[in-house]
Specification:
The chain is mainly α. It contains 20 helices and no strands. Mean pLDDT is 83; it is low at 465-484.
Length: 484
């Protein structure tokens, strides 16, 4: 199978997994916003956001090292045992130490939902560790099935805890935590992760190797916090948890586009590692870069145009202010897709310091802009600072990457996408029922027109059931041959 076919196949499998989880969180919005006040939802959102920050820090980002190094040793079981055993040991030691500190702190502080928060963090850490082991071993199908199971179980448990037992924000977090944990345990058993943990495989040199890769990524993780958790924190301090609830709802819609970007990144990061030393690397990477920019920019525009139409059916009217900030956040997600594209290449070349340096600079920009504007324009400051920071990082990484990989873009594509974004944003803010429908149609036509080659090739692949491998092998090759 060609590397482009492998990228297409992995993207499809990972998409099935991630979309299942993301759709659950999105279509559960009616339940969340109807049963929780803006303050309660804002508190739950803060906890989930902090989990996204602290879990990787607790793991010392070893989960990324697991994925990267297991790819290199897929045919060597002894080497796999060393990677998995030592990564699990590092994670377990740090997790136990942090847990002890947390529970001591809880004796002297009133931490909201303390026990539920701790369980959520533990589930998040375990789930992430197992999923990265599965991806590193190439068990992408098992990874995808786990994502589907997590989504379905979360729905059932949230309905039970929030509607039947009326547990509020605590029930929401408990349902999500169990939805992550139970399928992850099953996945660990299926891939035999527990058989790979051997005391005889403990090795100081392997630990040093893993940490040498993962520790430089910690500042990058902190920078991610500045992009995400700091926005929520600053809004909560300056404007209150209710305002954070509004901003959280806006992010749910922006994250529709962002989640597809993370799906692609999960697949692209593996393909980038496998293709980083190929002779046709620059051509392949450039093709993927243009296809990615085109696809995710039009996806963001389409999400933005459709939101005013579906918003009243999904979200309680007390959250209606959330509509105001979506276009700016969509712009930020588009820039973030470009940033993630380059991140995968840095990781493939094991240039984790470059990832960190660019992320820190962008995080500083985000923090300064946010703090400088929050007292004057409120929630707008968080959205604007995010878009400005991601945009700056995308531009910098484009120029910095020239030292390692020569990626070329179709600049006419930039002009077309800019025009489309401005047009759809203008009609979005007019916010007239008739114009909203017209706007959605315009966005749909633009999306189909700009991605007609990709859509046609994917359609061919899906219909060619008798020859699936041949169809996969032609997905990106045909895209490369066709012009915008």
């Amino acid at each position: 199978m060609s590397k482009t076919a492998a990228l297409a196949k992995n993207t499809l499998l990972i998409a099935i997994s991630r979309i299942s989880t993301q759709l659950v969180m999105f279509f559960m919005l009616p339940l969340y916003t109807a049963t929780l006040s803006t303050g309660e939802y804002g508190t739950a959102d803060l906890i989930m956001t902090y989990a996204g920050l602290f879990a990787p820090l607790i793991m010392l980002n070893v989960q990324q090292a697991i994925f990267r190094y297991l790819i290199d040793v897929r045919s060597d079981q002894d080497a796999q045992r060393k990677v998995i055993t030592n990564a699990v040991e590092i994670t377990a030691i740090v997790s136990l130490a942090i847990a002890a500190i947390y529970f001591i702190a809880n004796l002297f502080m009133d931490i909201p939902l303390a026990a539920t928060m701790a369980f959520y963090f533990a589930s998040f850490i375990f789930g992430d560790l197992v999923l990265q082991i599965a991806r590193g071993l190439g068990r992408t199908k098992a990874f995808a099935i786990t994502g589907i199971a997590q989504g379905l179980l979360t729905v059932v448990l949230n309905l039970v805890f929030m509607l039947h037992m009326q547990m509020g924000a605590g029930g929401m977090l408990l349902g999500i935590a169990l939805g992550i944990l139970v399928p992850s345990i099953v996945l660990a058993i299926v891939i035999g992760a527990h058989h790979s943990i051997k005391l005889t495989a403990r090795d100081r040199a392997t630990k040093k190797q893993l940490l040498a890769f993962s520790l430089p990524l910690i500042p990058n993780t902190i920078s991610w916090w500045v992009f995400n958790a700091s926005d929520r924190t600053i809004i909560t301090i300056a404007l209150g948890v209710a305002a954070n609830g509004i901003y959280a709802v806006t992010n749910k819609f922006a994250n529709i586009a962002n989640s597809f970007g993370s799906i692609f990144y999960a697949s692209w990061s593996e393909s980038a590692v496998l293709a980083i030393n190929d002779p046709d690397r620059d051509e392949f990477f450039s093709s993927v870069a243009n296809t990615t920019l085109r696809a995710f920019s039009t996806l963001g525009i389409l999400v933005m145009s459709a939101t005013p139409i579906i918003f009243p059916f999904l979200v309680n009217e007390k959250y209606s202010e959330a509509l105001l900030y979506l276009p700016i956040l969509i712009l930020g997600t588009i820039f973030n897709t470009v940033v993630s594209f380059y991140s995968a290449i840095y990781i493939a070349k094991k240039l984790t310091k470059q990832v960190t340096n660019t992320s820190i600079a962008a995080a500083v920009i985000n923090l300064v802009v946010n703090l400088g504007l929050i007292w004057f324009i409120g929630i707008w400051a968080a959205a604007i600072s995010t878009a400005v920071a991601y945009g700056g990082m995308a531009i910098y990484r484009y120029h910095d990457m020239k030292r390692y990989v020569n990626i070329t873009y179709d600049y006419m594509l930039f002009a077309i996408l800019t025009f489309a974004f401005v047009l759809v944003s203008t009609l979005y803010y007019v916010n007239h029922p008739t114009l909203n429908i017209l706007n959605a149609l315009i966005a749909l036509v633009l999306s189909i027109a700009l991605n007609r080659s990709t859509i046609g090739v994917i359609k061919t692949k899906l219909l060619a059931r008798r020859h699936p491998l041949a169809a996969e092998q032609h997905i990106f090759e045909e895209i490369e041959e066709k012009k915008l």
